[in-house]
C-alpha cells in the first residue's frame, strides 16, 4: 500500500464513522478542536496525519484508534 492509498483509506474510515454519528465535517472539527478544512483534508487523503491527530479524531468520534485503523 502506498502512502497516498493509506491516507485515502484512513480518510474513508473517518467519513464512515463521522456519518454513523450523523455529523458534518464542522461537527467533527468542533469536537476535536480542529479547523473544518483540516478534517476535509484528512478525509480526502490530502495530508499525512500524525498519529496524535488520528487519536484526537477517534476520541471525538468515541471510537478507539484501532477501530479507526481497522481496514
TrEMBL record:
Residue span, HTH cro/C1-type domain: 14-68
Tell me yes or no: is DNA-binding among this UniProt entry's keywords. Answer: yes
**Key word RNA-binding present:** no
Q: Which UniProt keywords are listed?
A: DNA-binding
**Which Pfam families does this one have?**
HTH_3 (PF01381)
Which Gene3D superfamilies does the protein's record reference?
A: lambda repressor-like DNA-binding domains
- Put simply, this protein is called XRE family transcriptional regulator
| Organism this protein belongs to | Flavobacterium hungaricum
Amino acid at each position: 500500500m502506498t502512502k497516498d492509498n493509506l491516507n485515502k483509506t484512513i480518510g474513508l474510515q473517518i467519513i464512515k464513522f463521522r456519518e454513523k454519528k450523523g455529523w458534518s465535517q464542522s461537527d467533527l472539527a468542533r469536537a476535536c478542536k480542529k479547523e473544518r478544512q483540516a478534517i476535509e483534508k484528512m478525509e480526502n487523503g490530502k495530508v499525512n496525519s500524525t498519529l496524535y491527530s488520528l487519536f484526537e479524531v477517534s476520541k471525538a468520534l468515541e471510537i478507539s484508534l484501532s477501530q479507526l485503523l481497522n481496514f
